[in-house]
Amino acid sequence: MTSQTSVMEATCPPWHLFLDHPLPVRLTGTKYACGTGSCGACTVMVSKHDPMSKKIRHFSITACLVPICSLYGAAVTTVEGVGSIKTKLHPVQERIAKSHGTQCGFCTPGMVMSIYTLLRNHPQPSEDQLMEALGGNLCRCTGYRPILESGRTFCVESNGCQQKGTGKCCLDQGENDSFSHGKSSDISTDLFMKDEFQPLDPTQDLIFPPELLRMAENPEKRTLTFHGERVTWISPGTLKDLLELKVKHPEAPLILGNTSLGPAMKSQGHFHPILLYPARISELSMVSKTSEGLTIGAGCSLAQVKDILAERISELPEEKTQTYRALLKHLKSLAGQQIRNMASLGGHIISRHYNSDMNPILAVGNATLNLISEEGTRQIPLNEHFLAGLASADLKPEEILESVYIPHSQKWEFVSAFRQAQCQQNALADVNAGMRVLLKEGTDTIEDLSIAYGGVGVTTISAHNSCQQLLGRRWNELMLDEACRLLLDEVSIPGSAPGGSVEFKRTLVVSFLFKFYLEVLQELKKLVKLFSDCLHYPEISDLSALEDFPVTVPQGVQRYQSVDSHQPLQDSVGRPIMHVSGLKHATGEAMFCDDIPRVDKELFMALVTSTRAHAKIISIDLSEALELPGVLDVITAKDIPGTNGAEDDKLLPVDEVLCVGQIICAVVAETDVQAKRAIKMIKITYEDLEPVIFTIEDAIKHNSFLCPEKKLEQGNIEEAFEKVDQVVEGEVHVGGQEHFYMETQTVLVIPKTEDKELDIYVSTQDPAHVQKTVSSTLNIPINRITCHVKRVGGGFGGKVGRPAVLGAIAAVGAIKTGHPIRLVLDREDDMLITGGRHPLFGKYKVGFMNNGRIKALDIECFINGGCTLDESEQVIEFLVLRLENAYKIQNLRFRGRACMTNLPSNTAFRGFGFPQGTLITESCITAVAAKCGLLPEKIREKNMYKTVDKTIYKQAFSPEPLIRCWNECLDKTSFHSRRMQVEEFNKKNYWKKKGIAIIPMKFTVGFAATSYHQAAALVHIYTDGSVLVTHGGSELGQGIHTKMLQVASRELKIPMSYMHICETSTATVPNTIATAASIGSDVNGRAVQNACQILLKRLEPIIKKNPEGTWEDWIEAAFEQRISLSATGYFRGYKAFMDWEKGEGDPFPYYVYGAACSEVEIDCLTGAHKKIRADIVMDACCSLNPAIDIGQIEGSFIQGMGLYTTEELKYSPEGVLYSRGPDDYKIPTITDVPVEFNVSLLSSSHTPLTIYSSKGLGESGMFLGSAVFFAIADAVATARRERDIAEHFTVKSPATPEWVRMACADRFTEMIPRDDPKTFKPWSIPIA
Q: Catalytic site residues (predicted)?
């Protein structure tokens, strides 16, 4: 296999995955982020010679699932093989960086490899091909738009803007085209210059290695065997050999893509001593076409099957390809491109996953499985008996699946496929279905009917009995009602079924049937022109149920104020400068914590976590673990030389555990595999304790709170409620959120040989906190510990407190063993242990006049803090302080409590309480609007702050920028005319509804304490004129280093190319504050500015003496004259305080204002939604770097959209987190980005307080994602009005397909059976 051009023999254990394998050249570009192939960070390109077509096939795969032995004869290209900053960049790498498609950079190599592979196959791809190529890659930072933008520069122009180059754009459809405050010439819409890009030259790409080509042309027929410590990998060269091996090893599974077996071996501990790899057997890849049907080899990948079906559909008349079209529809959304490239058709069928997307269609399509063994061949039907695994209908141990025969459909036969998942692509289906009906020619009488469902049982379920009873019936409403009744009876899902969502799944069973019923009627309409009198056709409004939401490529415009034309060219402030590490991100040369090469005698650490929610530890038996090879030690609470955390928050527990996932001890071993093997051998005996509290409701019942109540009040609330026209009360539930930073928690502790010194390399937002925690844990002075942060692969608040705990445990291991310790959490451990955003339960009571003016608002909210205090007190304080959002209400009472529960402690998360709390406030507004019969935007406008005023906590501010953002958003989005269009659409469509919403925002920036706003910097000028800048902020992807260099460049009046930032280190800038609260660039920028001004003042006499000299001349002269060329800069911080006794203060330095408008369309039958458009107007004042700031706004908006729509954490009744990876926890993917996505920075806005009048924008966009939530709620409310159901309903976030579908109640939700909650134990429990 090759990476660049080095050829390597596979001499490693056969089950080693490609990503784990130590290559001779250390290549760290390919990133490990999930271990299940679902995030795309580890994407590489594999090239193989295809014996059928005699061509080289290039395809993207996820390296975390690929066993090294499966790469025999393949060329592997990693990101390092594509291009390098040391030699030459590939256009893909250059463009993704210069288009600002990289922030933290951890996902970038995977993105690069997906686009690069696409270009190797299609040098001028279509936009649809680009979307498909990136469908399996996740990014948590950018919001995807700039990544797509970079890929689009390679695409064939299809529907791009026709007015390019004119400065106008077809997307500018404001009701009033002139920009408020400033002419359009001041406004720029270009964040990068396309004409600077180097062209794509396919002739420069790496060739397929000639030695591999020679191997492929004379294929090795002998069986290849790789022996490992526990596993033997056998790769036969011929079918005969394979069949012999199958007789010899009947239990050995066949493995091709490893997309099913791999995850099962990893997560469920499945173990197979012998694996058979049949990839070299050409018979398994054969495709044959006959007049009756299509036979596809079981070894074909799903991507190949997709191409084969698409080709066959293009060749045959439509009536013959019904089954093929249904299969193709599901293949487009099944997993991501990389998994489709790896997974085989045979593997998919034989695995019989309960939610398989293909098996229901193959079953109803009468597919036949062609089996082969030494005995000969035989055929078995792919039917309900095979799917249920009945021995009589299954493969015998010595048989293998050779191919699958799929017959053509015929005239009067209709086949359809349906699926509903948490999101549109790269998500496992909640329910899917294949349905087929054959009608008697020329009539609507059912001759044959077949229906199969996935996701509703342990395997694909066939509704055979129901179908039999419907034979001979006419295809009409009577049949439909009977069919629904029969199906709900036959496809019964118990209340405690795994996966939960039982009522939703029952509803989908009949909703899908209704869709199929309408589809067939629609087709009949085309076929039976003659019978139009006797057949009943659906009314036009019913047809809205038929169309699925298409996958469309997002478009958009980004507007910002251009810099003054007199600004010197070398002054980069205000310009859209690329992230300083952008190119290194794109080439994989940017070093993250785990990319640091192995240190001499380094050991690995793995953590042992509690399996009980609240229990006493009776004993810990380490004996078996310590006997395993490679295991050196196990670290427990007894080994801690200093302080073991706080009294109520121990680093390692002594005798009691408070949640599932609490760290109990840590294994230290020579390799990570040995350490992980050892943790399974540690036996812990528990004794369960009472009470066990998981939900906020239980915590309130048990009076279980982490801190005192926080309360703010103004006016006389009780009196106001007496005098209003109407009062509404309601509840709001907001689920938690996982940070899902792409780089999991990582720390490397290196003990020095003397003075108890330690070097700690850690992925953290707060290196000083890690340093202090390690100091107190080891009982050594802080000055012996140095924390280094080069860059962090995403933080979002999740790397403020947690890294200190992990760093301290690793440091105890390092001190005890005397060895360097590396601790890298797997994704599932990271999600289990670290906690996330606080779930919230809120109650409101709002009093208002009939005209919509709100006179009184009383909100009480509770957050689920988990088992320890962590940041919960600050979160509840900030939440309460921010609750009023943009509204001036005379009489208010806000109360908040943090609940203590037996769940992992929740912690800081972008927005810090604001995204949860303010959802209550905005829900009040919609409730008032519904009661008054007015539009929500009118209520918002009526109650918004209008003039200079004071907040509930008596801080004065001017709402002028808020009102400008609101008005500009209304104008730019043509809101009022679109509201009318939405209403028009909704009148015509019964099963699809559109919703639109506009949300204002007043977001507070900073910490509520002056000491947290201080910052320091250290700037050195070296004798060659180069400048080294260091400051106290961590680079998390938010571009802080880029902005600091822009500040230094302006202050020293020299180009950025003279500057460098090496890392953030506690040795250069001590006592730093966490990089958080949107304030990092603000305060560190002031410190860098201060240092540069000190240096420039020192240089002034020299410059005066020689004004014509160069920078280098001045520095040389300064050195000769013994002038210090190093300066510490310091910023004492913005004043901020809050007195909770009085309920007043000036807690925040300033506000960020914004508004967002969103339009969506929902499918009332399935709960799916499509984001049609989103527009954001944000008051950034004078942006330091519009590209970075717009990137922050877009990224946080998409992350907020995830919080409010798809990101759902599920816990078992025992408090175990189920959603521990990208398969179960769905962050937004590339197909979730609104079809049109526009961002405008408010022009001509200034603030005297901050550096160069800029604002911190890291978090504010998060809440604006709620515009999508309220647009969905608007569409749901319309559906409920039309169905005569109460319009007012309990607000629950996220607005998942389940919530939307069940809220749009109709005859199908009415007909499903409902279980009495007392009669079963639910699979999951709501914790908010």
A: 1259
